[in-house]
Design brief:
By secondary structure, the chain is of the alpha+beta class. It is built from three helices and seven strands; from the N terminus they run ααβββββββα.
């Protein structure tokens, strides 16, 4: 078998895998449609958590949850949801630029999260994080 035939078969195989992935929808990013969906997703991983409120980013890519004595984060990573129960020790910095709330975490698997929220929600959760980080 010539080298050209092997190349054609290899490229055809890669293209077939890409087409199959697209056809079954595995390459499609998921979105958080509502706060209720974020709460349900977080509760699946942390059933004992008492969620007092929250906000979903405008693009549906992340949600932040007020746990009373903590903060929850639900974010989309490809076609999966990632949930974190954040502790003060997990957070490096919280910054806000208008409605964008940026979280820097010490977790190497989820080092940064940016939530595009309404200005009021961003201010509320920036204050929540600031109080949470400075609490004794």
């Amino acid at each position: 078998m010539s080298f050209l035939v092997v190349q054609i078969i290899s490229i055809g195989g890669v293209l077939a895998v890409i087409a199959l992935t697209w056809a079954v929808g595995w390459g499609r990013a998921v979105k958080i449609a509502s706060l209720e969906e974020a709460v349900a997703r977080f509760s699946a991983d942390f059933p004992s958590a008492e969620i007092k409120g929250g906000a979903v980013a405008k693009n549906g890519g992340s949600a932040i949850l007020d746990l009373g004595k903590g903060v929850g984060l639900v974010t989309v990573l490809g076609d999966e949801f990632v949930t974190r129960k954040l502790r003060p020790v997990d957070i490096k910095a919280v910054k806000r630029d208008g409605g964008n709330l940026m979280l820097e975490m010490k977790d190497s698997t989820l080092a940064k999260a940016c939530l595009a929220l309404e200005n009021v929600a961003a201010e509320k959760y920036e204050t929540l994080f600031s109080n949470y980080l400075t609490a004794p």
